[in-house]
Amino acid sequence: MVEELKTKFSPRILLGLIVLISFTVLFTFFVLFRTFNIYLFSIVVAGTVVGWILYEDSTAKALLFAASTSAGTMLILIAVFLFIRGFPAFQENPVFFIVGSEWDVYREIYSLGPMIWGSIVVTFGATLLAAPMGISAAIFIGKFAPEWLRSILKPAIELLAGIPSVVYGFIGFVLLNRAIMNYFDISNMGQYFAPSIILGFMALPTITSVAEDAIDAVPEHMEKGALALGVTKWQAIKEVTLPSASSGITAALILGIGRALGETMAVTMMIGHKTAFPNPLYDIFDPGETLTSLIASQIGEASGQAVEALMGAGLLLFFIVLVLSTTSRLIQSRLQRRFRRG
Asked: For the whole model, what pTM was predicted?
Protein backbone atom coordinates (compact mmCIF):
# COMPACT_ATOMS: atom_id res chain seq x y z
CA MET A 1 0.00 0.00 0.00
CA VAL A 2 2.77 2.43 0.93
CA GLU A 3 4.63 1.69 -2.29
CA GLU A 4 1.46 2.29 -4.31
CA LEU A 5 0.95 5.67 -2.62
CA LYS A 6 4.55 6.59 -3.37
CA THR A 7 3.98 5.65 -7.00
CA LYS A 8 0.76 7.67 -7.28
CA PHE A 9 1.99 10.66 -5.31
CA SER A 10 5.59 11.15 -6.35
CA PRO A 11 7.57 13.99 -4.73
CA ARG A 12 7.39 16.09 -7.88
CA ILE A 13 3.57 15.84 -7.93
CA LEU A 14 3.36 16.78 -4.25
CA LEU A 15 5.74 19.71 -4.82
CA GLY A 16 3.64 20.89 -7.75
CA LEU A 17 0.42 20.65 -5.75
CA ILE A 18 1.97 22.63 -2.89
CA VAL A 19 3.04 25.41 -5.26
CA LEU A 20 -0.33 25.44 -7.06
CA ILE A 21 -2.39 25.48 -3.85
CA SER A 22 -0.19 28.16 -2.30
CA PHE A 23 -0.52 30.38 -5.35
CA THR A 24 -4.30 29.87 -5.49
CA VAL A 25 -4.72 30.76 -1.81
CA LEU A 26 -2.36 33.72 -2.22
CA PHE A 27 -4.44 35.13 -5.08
CA THR A 28 -7.72 34.47 -3.26
CA PHE A 29 -6.51 36.37 -0.20
CA PHE A 30 -5.30 39.21 -2.41
CA VAL A 31 -8.64 39.55 -4.24
CA LEU A 32 -11.00 39.04 -1.31
CA PHE A 33 -9.11 40.71 1.52
CA ARG A 34 -6.59 42.88 -0.41
CA THR A 35 -3.72 41.47 1.67
CA PHE A 36 -0.43 40.02 0.43
CA ASN A 37 0.84 37.00 2.35
CA ILE A 38 4.63 36.92 2.20
CA TYR A 39 4.76 33.37 3.56
CA LEU A 40 2.61 31.92 0.78
CA PHE A 41 4.63 33.88 -1.75
CA SER A 42 7.84 32.46 -0.27
CA ILE A 43 6.42 28.92 -0.58
CA VAL A 44 5.64 29.53 -4.26
CA VAL A 45 9.14 30.90 -4.97
CA ALA A 46 10.91 28.23 -2.92
CA GLY A 47 8.85 25.46 -4.48
CA THR A 48 9.68 26.72 -7.97
CA VAL A 49 13.41 26.93 -7.16
CA VAL A 50 13.48 23.47 -5.58
CA GLY A 51 11.52 22.06 -8.52
CA TRP A 52 13.99 23.61 -10.96
CA ILE A 53 16.94 22.09 -9.10
CA LEU A 54 15.51 18.60 -8.59
CA TYR A 55 13.07 18.23 -11.51
CA GLU A 56 14.27 20.66 -14.12
CA ASP A 57 12.39 19.10 -17.05
CA SER A 58 9.00 19.00 -15.31
CA THR A 59 9.46 22.47 -13.84
CA ALA A 60 10.52 23.90 -17.22
CA LYS A 61 7.42 22.40 -18.85
CA ALA A 62 5.22 23.82 -16.08
CA LEU A 63 6.77 27.29 -16.40
CA LEU A 64 6.47 27.24 -20.19
CA PHE A 65 2.86 26.15 -19.89
CA ALA A 66 2.20 28.96 -17.38
CA ALA A 67 3.84 31.49 -19.71
CA SER A 68 1.85 30.30 -22.73
CA THR A 69 -1.44 30.43 -20.85
CA SER A 70 -0.70 33.63 -18.96
CA ALA A 71 -2.95 35.74 -21.19
CA GLY A 72 -5.93 33.46 -20.63
CA THR A 73 -5.10 33.20 -16.95
CA MET A 74 -4.97 36.98 -16.61
CA LEU A 75 -8.31 37.27 -18.39
CA ILE A 76 -9.88 34.82 -15.96
CA LEU A 77 -8.32 36.56 -12.94
CA ILE A 78 -9.51 39.98 -14.12
CA ALA A 79 -13.01 38.62 -14.74
CA VAL A 80 -13.11 37.04 -11.27
CA PHE A 81 -11.84 40.25 -9.64
CA LEU A 82 -14.38 42.45 -11.44
CA PHE A 83 -17.21 40.04 -10.67
CA ILE A 84 -16.36 39.88 -6.96
CA ARG A 85 -15.95 43.64 -6.62
CA GLY A 86 -18.56 44.83 -9.13
CA PHE A 87 -21.48 42.41 -8.82
CA PRO A 88 -22.77 43.92 -5.54
CA ALA A 89 -23.65 47.09 -7.48
CA PHE A 90 -26.21 45.11 -9.51
CA GLN A 91 -27.85 43.34 -6.57
CA GLU A 92 -30.03 46.08 -5.07
CA ASN A 93 -31.73 47.45 -8.19
CA PRO A 94 -30.04 46.24 -11.39
CA VAL A 95 -32.53 47.88 -13.77
CA PHE A 96 -32.09 51.33 -12.21
CA PHE A 97 -28.32 50.86 -12.03
CA ILE A 98 -28.14 50.23 -15.78
CA VAL A 99 -30.84 52.52 -17.25
CA GLY A 100 -31.35 55.13 -14.52
CA SER A 101 -30.59 58.78 -15.18
CA GLU A 102 -28.86 60.01 -12.02
CA TRP A 103 -25.34 59.68 -10.65
CA ASP A 104 -24.88 61.56 -7.40
CA VAL A 105 -21.98 60.56 -5.16
CA TYR A 106 -23.09 62.79 -2.26
CA ARG A 107 -26.58 61.27 -2.08
CA GLU A 108 -25.23 57.81 -2.93
CA ILE A 109 -27.42 57.45 -6.01
CA TYR A 110 -25.71 55.53 -8.78
CA SER A 111 -27.01 54.71 -12.24
CA LEU A 112 -25.05 54.26 -15.46
CA GLY A 113 -27.70 55.36 -17.96
CA PRO A 114 -26.07 58.66 -19.02
CA MET A 115 -22.62 57.06 -19.23
CA ILE A 116 -23.88 54.13 -21.28
CA TRP A 117 -25.59 56.58 -23.62
CA GLY A 118 -22.40 58.63 -23.86
CA SER A 119 -20.38 55.52 -24.71
CA ILE A 120 -22.90 54.60 -27.41
CA VAL A 121 -22.85 58.09 -28.95
CA VAL A 122 -19.06 58.42 -28.92
CA THR A 123 -18.49 54.88 -30.23
CA PHE A 124 -21.11 55.28 -32.95
CA GLY A 125 -19.55 58.55 -34.10
CA ALA A 126 -16.08 56.99 -34.13
CA THR A 127 -17.36 54.03 -36.16
CA LEU A 128 -18.99 56.35 -38.71
CA LEU A 129 -15.59 57.93 -39.27
CA ALA A 130 -13.29 54.91 -38.99
CA ALA A 131 -15.36 52.31 -40.86
CA PRO A 132 -15.44 53.88 -44.37
CA MET A 133 -11.89 55.23 -44.04
CA GLY A 134 -10.50 51.95 -42.74
CA ILE A 135 -12.22 49.72 -45.31
CA SER A 136 -11.31 52.09 -48.15
CA ALA A 137 -7.68 52.12 -47.00
CA ALA A 138 -7.70 48.32 -46.78
CA ILE A 139 -9.03 47.99 -50.34
CA PHE A 140 -6.50 50.44 -51.74
CA ILE A 141 -3.54 48.91 -49.89
CA GLY A 142 -4.54 45.35 -50.72
CA LYS A 143 -5.62 45.74 -54.35
CA PHE A 144 -4.50 48.99 -55.94
CA ALA A 145 -1.34 50.28 -54.25
CA PRO A 146 2.00 49.37 -55.85
CA GLU A 147 4.41 47.47 -53.64
CA TRP A 148 6.58 50.48 -52.82
CA LEU A 149 3.56 52.55 -51.78
CA ARG A 150 2.06 49.64 -49.82
CA SER A 151 5.31 49.30 -47.86
CA ILE A 152 4.90 52.95 -46.80
CA LEU A 153 1.15 53.20 -46.23
CA LYS A 154 0.58 50.06 -44.17
CA PRO A 155 3.29 50.78 -41.55
CA ALA A 156 2.20 54.43 -41.46
CA ILE A 157 -1.40 53.50 -40.65
CA GLU A 158 -0.35 50.87 -38.12
CA LEU A 159 1.92 53.46 -36.53
CA LEU A 160 -1.21 55.33 -35.44
CA ALA A 161 -1.86 52.47 -33.00
CA GLY A 162 1.54 53.08 -31.41
CA ILE A 163 0.85 56.72 -30.53
CA PRO A 164 0.02 56.96 -26.79
CA SER A 165 -3.62 57.72 -26.10
CA VAL A 166 -2.62 60.64 -23.88
CA VAL A 167 -1.10 62.30 -26.97
CA TYR A 168 -4.39 61.86 -28.83
CA GLY A 169 -6.20 63.32 -25.84
CA PHE A 170 -3.86 66.29 -25.63
CA ILE A 171 -4.21 67.07 -29.33
CA GLY A 172 -7.98 66.70 -29.11
CA PHE A 173 -8.24 68.94 -26.06
CA VAL A 174 -5.91 71.68 -27.26
CA LEU A 175 -6.79 71.77 -30.96
CA LEU A 176 -9.96 69.88 -31.82
CA ASN A 177 -12.16 70.96 -28.91
CA ARG A 178 -11.39 74.61 -29.44
CA ALA A 179 -11.69 74.36 -33.22
CA ILE A 180 -15.16 72.84 -32.89
CA MET A 181 -16.20 75.54 -30.41
CA ASN A 182 -15.05 78.28 -32.76
CA TYR A 183 -16.40 76.73 -35.97
CA PHE A 184 -19.86 75.86 -34.62
CA ASP A 185 -20.00 78.89 -32.34
CA ILE A 186 -20.78 76.94 -29.17
CA SER A 187 -19.65 77.52 -25.60
CA ASN A 188 -19.64 73.91 -24.38
CA MET A 189 -16.22 72.41 -23.78
CA GLY A 190 -15.99 68.61 -23.83
CA GLN A 191 -18.78 67.68 -26.21
CA TYR A 192 -19.42 64.17 -27.55
CA PHE A 193 -18.40 65.24 -31.05
CA ALA A 194 -14.68 65.82 -30.50
CA PRO A 195 -13.92 62.49 -28.77
CA SER A 196 -15.77 60.70 -31.57
CA ILE A 197 -13.36 62.10 -34.13
CA ILE A 198 -10.28 61.25 -32.08
CA LEU A 199 -11.54 57.72 -31.35
CA GLY A 200 -12.25 57.27 -35.04
CA PHE A 201 -8.58 57.82 -35.85
CA MET A 202 -7.55 55.58 -32.95
CA ALA A 203 -9.74 52.74 -34.26
CA LEU A 204 -8.57 53.25 -37.85
CA PRO A 205 -5.41 51.05 -37.65
CA THR A 206 -7.35 48.11 -36.21
CA ILE A 207 -10.06 48.22 -38.87
CA THR A 208 -7.59 48.76 -41.71
CA SER A 209 -5.19 46.00 -40.66
CA VAL A 210 -7.82 43.31 -40.02
CA ALA A 211 -9.87 44.23 -43.10
CA GLU A 212 -6.76 44.20 -45.30
CA ASP A 213 -5.83 40.74 -44.00
CA ALA A 214 -9.35 39.53 -44.79
CA ILE A 215 -9.19 40.93 -48.32
CA ASP A 216 -5.73 39.47 -48.85
CA ALA A 217 -7.00 36.04 -47.69
CA VAL A 218 -9.45 35.80 -50.61
CA PRO A 219 -7.96 33.37 -53.18
CA GLU A 220 -6.63 35.16 -56.25
CA HIS A 221 -8.28 32.74 -58.67
CA MET A 222 -11.73 34.03 -57.64
CA GLU A 223 -10.89 37.57 -58.74
CA LYS A 224 -9.01 36.40 -61.81
CA GLY A 225 -12.02 34.32 -62.82
CA ALA A 226 -14.19 37.42 -62.67
CA LEU A 227 -11.65 39.41 -64.69
CA ALA A 228 -11.62 36.68 -67.31
CA LEU A 229 -15.35 37.23 -67.80
CA GLY A 230 -14.64 40.79 -68.89
CA VAL A 231 -15.47 42.84 -65.79
CA THR A 232 -13.26 45.67 -64.59
CA LYS A 233 -10.96 45.29 -61.62
CA TRP A 234 -13.21 47.43 -59.42
CA GLN A 235 -16.25 45.39 -60.39
CA ALA A 236 -14.38 42.19 -59.53
CA ILE A 237 -13.43 43.61 -56.14
CA LYS A 238 -16.94 44.89 -55.48
CA GLU A 239 -18.81 41.78 -56.64
CA VAL A 240 -16.37 38.99 -55.68
CA THR A 241 -13.61 40.01 -53.28
CA LEU A 242 -15.57 42.13 -50.82
CA PRO A 243 -18.49 39.68 -50.45
CA SER A 244 -16.02 36.84 -49.94
CA ALA A 245 -14.15 38.84 -47.28
CA SER A 246 -17.33 40.18 -45.66
CA SER A 247 -16.90 38.06 -42.52
CA GLY A 248 -13.38 39.34 -41.97
CA ILE A 249 -14.42 42.93 -42.66
CA THR A 250 -17.27 42.55 -40.16
CA ALA A 251 -14.77 41.24 -37.63
CA ALA A 252 -12.57 44.27 -38.31
CA LEU A 253 -15.49 46.61 -37.63
CA ILE A 254 -16.34 44.79 -34.39
CA LEU A 255 -12.74 45.03 -33.21
CA GLY A 256 -12.70 48.71 -34.11
CA ILE A 257 -15.89 49.27 -32.11
CA GLY A 258 -14.32 47.48 -29.16
CA ARG A 259 -11.21 49.64 -29.48
CA ALA A 260 -13.27 52.82 -29.43
CA LEU A 261 -15.54 51.61 -26.65
CA GLY A 262 -12.69 50.67 -24.35
CA GLU A 263 -10.52 53.77 -24.85
CA THR A 264 -10.04 55.73 -21.64
CA MET A 265 -7.34 58.37 -21.44
CA ALA A 266 -8.10 60.32 -24.63
CA VAL A 267 -11.82 60.49 -23.82
CA THR A 268 -11.16 61.41 -20.20
CA MET A 269 -9.01 64.36 -21.26
CA MET A 270 -11.52 65.67 -23.79
CA ILE A 271 -15.03 65.02 -22.50
CA GLY A 272 -16.97 67.33 -20.17
CA HIS A 273 -17.68 64.84 -17.31
CA LYS A 274 -21.36 65.71 -17.03
CA THR A 275 -23.14 62.71 -15.50
CA ALA A 276 -26.54 63.42 -17.04
CA PHE A 277 -28.33 62.74 -20.31
CA PRO A 278 -27.91 65.43 -22.99
CA ASN A 279 -30.98 67.52 -23.72
CA PRO A 280 -32.10 66.57 -26.32
CA LEU A 281 -30.60 63.06 -26.47
CA TYR A 282 -29.22 63.52 -29.98
CA ASP A 283 -27.27 66.66 -29.06
CA ILE A 284 -23.68 65.69 -29.82
CA PHE A 285 -22.40 69.13 -28.76
CA ASP A 286 -23.52 68.73 -25.15
CA PRO A 287 -20.95 67.82 -22.46
CA GLY A 288 -21.26 64.27 -21.20
CA GLU A 289 -19.51 61.22 -19.81
CA THR A 290 -18.67 57.68 -20.90
CA LEU A 291 -18.18 54.52 -18.88
CA THR A 292 -14.42 54.60 -19.26
CA SER A 293 -14.02 58.29 -18.47
CA LEU A 294 -16.30 57.91 -15.44
CA ILE A 295 -14.09 55.21 -13.97
CA ALA A 296 -10.86 57.06 -14.75
CA SER A 297 -12.03 60.40 -13.36
CA GLN A 298 -13.68 59.19 -10.13
CA ILE A 299 -11.89 56.03 -8.98
CA GLY A 300 -9.13 58.01 -7.26
CA GLU A 301 -11.51 59.72 -4.81
CA ALA A 302 -14.21 57.03 -4.52
CA SER A 303 -15.01 55.09 -1.36
CA GLY A 304 -17.72 52.75 -0.11
CA GLN A 305 -20.66 52.33 -2.46
CA ALA A 306 -19.04 54.57 -5.06
CA VAL A 307 -16.24 52.04 -5.49
CA GLU A 308 -18.78 49.24 -5.94
CA ALA A 309 -20.66 51.31 -8.53
CA LEU A 310 -17.48 52.05 -10.46
CA MET A 311 -16.47 48.40 -10.30
CA GLY A 312 -19.96 47.56 -11.59
CA ALA A 313 -19.37 49.93 -14.50
CA GLY A 314 -16.05 48.19 -15.15
CA LEU A 315 -17.75 44.78 -15.04
CA LEU A 316 -20.39 45.90 -17.55
CA LEU A 317 -17.75 47.38 -19.85
CA PHE A 318 -15.60 44.25 -19.57
CA PHE A 319 -18.56 42.06 -20.50
CA ILE A 320 -19.45 44.19 -23.55
CA VAL A 321 -15.87 44.25 -24.88
CA LEU A 322 -15.50 40.52 -24.21
CA VAL A 323 -18.64 39.78 -26.23
CA LEU A 324 -17.41 41.98 -29.09
CA SER A 325 -13.96 40.34 -29.13
CA THR A 326 -15.39 36.83 -28.96
CA THR A 327 -17.82 37.58 -31.78
CA SER A 328 -14.97 38.94 -33.89
CA ARG A 329 -12.88 35.81 -33.32
CA LEU A 330 -15.81 33.56 -34.24
CA ILE A 331 -16.40 35.51 -37.45
CA GLN A 332 -12.70 35.32 -38.39
CA SER A 333 -12.67 31.57 -37.72
CA ARG A 334 -15.70 31.18 -39.96
CA LEU A 335 -13.90 33.06 -42.74
CA GLN A 336 -10.81 30.87 -42.41
CA ARG A 337 -12.87 27.68 -42.50
CA ARG A 338 -14.71 28.90 -45.60
CA PHE A 339 -11.51 29.50 -47.55
CA ARG A 340 -9.89 26.33 -46.20
CA ARG A 341 -12.72 24.29 -47.67
CA GLY A 342 -11.93 26.13 -50.87
From this structure: 0.78
